[in-house]
């Protein structure tokens, strides 16, 4: 008898082994009836809740024991219209489609074939459309946006203007229709790199979900960069109304993306509370309260998020990119230098022209330098200077032959002639003093009187005598 057992024992072991392998390779069912729990009841009760809730293994919704997906995490994706369960790293989606007295009915709505290309992807709902962004798979990260095709039951790629690689800090603002990505990390196992820093990029962006366009916000602030540099494998975030809370080196930080501010908890008991729940699983925020579900006792712990428990840091998440400023400054300097060079050249040319004119004029007589009306005006002013009187406007108008013209024209002609005389005189004498000057009349300040500058009387007389 023992001999028979010895012969058949290996066959029994082989049969048992095949049975176990068969069980492990079993695929997921298309429909599951899941027992109601206080956790699921609360999620459904909060009809206007928008949340992505990472589930702990004791609290998973879709039973995966005995399948290839036993180790895969699960998350709830919810808005006011729908509730989905995502089997992480697969693209498998189950939708809540009904309720009985004691169960919730979930139906698989996808026909996903390719898996493990979206490890760690960010899955979310926006305007009732299910999306998946980024992830890791096939030895590299990606920055792709995918949308679930409800008709074909597959994930479709959605082209954008750039490929931005998230670093775990991505945050969705349903109100604005944006995904914020303040820091990027590119992982490509096919490339040789020296340090982890070679993978990081510090440009900050947001994705406009309406236009499917990435828009640059700036660059990660240097002080913010120091904080994130000690967070090599960022995970376990909790989304709040305006940003994320996250633990780094036993400290709790609140990244407010709407206001571009960073807060740090200043209370040890707050830090300890979240450190004990560092995985941020079975947790969500709703109207200022943070809910943590404990599967072992089937109840919630609720705490209020108080900004007063935090201190604001003196630097933003991102700031304006000043990298190009040095090139702008260099361009401005070059333009100024060119303008200065042109100005110097023009001044030198002008000086040469003046010197050339001076040589020409000095070789001429006064009668050649000044025209007839100019000489007549100089002689009248010189005679009046001899008589120690000043010349009035009407006298100048008479000499210049404009006494019958309108006032505006008279003023222009007087000004042009006097300026011409003074310029020529300064060239001839190589001096700075004008020949003809003016002063307000003592009895009527509205009008001017003209005269030969006293210091130039002898000089102009000599020039007139030589003509």
In short:
This protein has 467 residues and is α+β, with helices and mostly antiparallel strands.
Comma- or semicolon-separated keywords:
467 residues; alpha+beta; Arc Repressor Mutant, subunit A; 2 domains; six-stranded antiparallel β-sheet; five-stranded antiparallel β-sheet; 10 helices; 31% helix; 30% strand; disordered N terminus
Task: Give an account of the 3D structure.
The protein has two domains: 29-325; 364-465, Arc Repressor Mutant, subunit A (Orthogonal Bundle), CATH 1.10.10. The chain is rod-shaped. The protein is an alpha+beta fold and 467 residues long. The strands form seven sheets. It has a six-stranded antiparallel sheet, with no helix packed on it. The protein has a five-stranded antiparallel sheet with strand order 11-12-15-16-25. The protein has a five-stranded antiparallel sheet with strand order 17-18-19-20-24, sandwiched between helices. It has ten helices and 28 strands. It has helices at residues 2-24, 38-45, 222-229, 268-275, 325-362, 366-369, 372-386, 393-400, 407-429, 457-465; strands at 31-35, 51-55, 74-78, 83-87, 92-99, 103-108, 122-126, 129-137, 140-149, 154-158, 171-173, 178-181, 184-185, 200-201, 203-208, 213-220, 238-239, 243-248, 251-256, 261-265, 283-286, 289-294, 299-304, 310-312, 318-319, 391-392, 436-440, 448-452.
């Amino acid at each position: 008898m023992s001999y028979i057992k010895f012969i058949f024992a290996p066959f029994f072991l082989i049969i048992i082994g095949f049975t176990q392998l068969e069980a492990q390779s079993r695929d997921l069912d298309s429909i599951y009836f899941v027992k109601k729990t206080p956790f699921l009841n609360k999620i459904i009760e909060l009809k206007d809740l928008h949340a992505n809730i990472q589930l702990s293994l004791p609290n998973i919704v879709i039973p995966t024991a005995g399948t290839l997906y036993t180790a895969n995490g699960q998350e709830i994706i919810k808005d006011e219209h729908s509730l989905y369960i995502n089997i992480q790293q697969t693209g498998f989606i189950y939708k809540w489609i009904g309720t009985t007295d004691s169960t919730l009915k979930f139906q698989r709505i996808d026909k996903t074939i390719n898996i493990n290309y979206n490890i760690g992807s960010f899955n979310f709902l926006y305007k009732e459309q299910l999306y998946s962004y980024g992830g890791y798979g096939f030895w590299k990260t990606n920055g792709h946006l995918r949308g679930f095709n409800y008709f074909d039951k597959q994930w479709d790629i959605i082209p954008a203007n750039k490929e931005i690689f998230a670093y775990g800090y991505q945050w969705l603002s349903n109100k604005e229709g944006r995904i914020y990505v303040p820091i990027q990390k590119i992982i490509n196992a096919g490339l040789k790199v020296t340090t982890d820093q070679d993978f990081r990029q510090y440009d900050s962006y947001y994705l406009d979900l309406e236009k499917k366009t990435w828009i640059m916000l700036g660059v990660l602030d240097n002080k913010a960069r120091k904080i994130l540099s000690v967070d090599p494998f960022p995970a376990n975030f909790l989304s709040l109304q305006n940003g994320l809370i996250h633990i780094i080196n036993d400290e709790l930080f609140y990244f407010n993306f709407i206001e571009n501010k960073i807060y740090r908890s200043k209370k040890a008991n707050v830090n300890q509370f979240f450190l004990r729940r560092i995985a941020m699983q079975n947790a969500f925020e709703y109207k200022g309260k943070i809910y943590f579900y404990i599967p072992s006792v089937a109840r919630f712990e609720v705490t209020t998020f108080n900004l007063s428990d935090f201190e604001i840091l003196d630097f933003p998440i991102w700031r304006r990119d000043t990298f190009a400023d040095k090139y702008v400054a260099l361009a401005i300097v070059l333009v100024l230098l060119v303008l200065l060079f042109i100005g110097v050249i023009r001044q030198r040319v002008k000086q040469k022209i003046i010197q050339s004119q001076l040589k020409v004029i000095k070789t001429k007589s006064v009668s050649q330098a000044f025209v007839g009306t100019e000489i007549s005006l100089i002689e009248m002013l010189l005679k009046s200077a001899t008589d120690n009187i000043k010349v009035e406007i009407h006298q100048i108008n008479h000499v210049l032959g404009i006494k019958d013209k309108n006032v505006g024209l008279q003023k222009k002609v007087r000004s042009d002639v006097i300026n011409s005389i003074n310029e020529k005189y300064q060239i001839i004498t190589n001096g700075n003093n004008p020949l003809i000057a003016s002063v307000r009349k003592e009895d009527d300040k509205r009008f001017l009187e003209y005269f030969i500058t006293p210091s130039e009387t002898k000089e102009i007389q000599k020039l007139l005598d030589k003509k």
